[in-house]
Amino acid sequence: AQRVTQPEKLLSVFKGAPVELKCNYSYSGSPELFWYVQYSRQRLQLLLRHISRESIKGFTADLNKGETSFHLKKPFAQEEDSAMYYCALSVDSWGKLQFGAGTQVVVTP
Amino acid sequence: NAGVTQTPKFQVLKTGQSMTLQCAQDMNHNSMYWYRQDPGMGLRLIYYSASEGTTDKGEVPNGYNVSRLNKREFSLRLESAAPSQTSVYFCASISNFEGLHGYTFGSGTRLTVV
Fold first, then answer.
1. Of A27-41, A54-68, A69-83, which has the strongest mean pLDDT?
2. Which residue of A has its CA nearest to B92?
3. Sign of the Cα pseudo-torsion (A30, B4, B80, A41, in order)
4. Is the pLDDT of residue A81 over 90?
5. Which portions of chain B are predicted below pLDDT 70?
6. Helix (H, G, I), strand (E, B), or coil: what is residue B84?
7. What are A's interface residues with B at a Cβ cutoff of 8 A?
8. Pairing between strand B109-113 and B10-13?
9. Contact assessment for residue B103 and residue B97, using Cβ atoms and an 8 Å cutoff
């Protein structure tokens, strides 16, 4: 069965420090992975998808098939990065997503 | 361009009452989804509709029914609400099956069942 694990419920970092959110997955097929973000009082929105290899708001994520990981990284955290982050795995061609439990990031000045 | 619109935003129900959560999208998307969000559990898929006229169960369908009224609208019904259905409900849509472009989410419905 597919599974997405985000081991950290809460990540507290200082402004300007690096931040890394861990995501591990289990899936027998070829994975398509995403990071979604939910800022306070806003709706969930797509942050990154691994196939695009984009850098959004300074965040990057690399798919490591050997370690079955898709960690999200940013070298210098900003206060506006405080939010809930979800890692998600596309499980079939019908667009269904398997979400992790989420990591709450708090960036303090 | 409204995107995905959900109503109501908040609702309190008594155990056993019924209600329908409404979702509409104006992006001409084929596929629509209903998720529930619970602390420590992330988002779990309740039902989805790959295209107009089709619906299928997700991970946690028990206690819910859905209707894909037309291409724009996808409603979620609770026939007899239970406290375990207290949650935040999100509707989402996507333009293609492969999910390459990511979901567009609604703003959510916060439901409390007492």
1. A69-83
2. A44
3. positive
4. yes
5. 1, 96-101
6. helix
7. 4, 6, 9, 32, 34, 36, 43-46, 49, 51, 86, 90, 93-97, 99-102
8. parallel
9. no
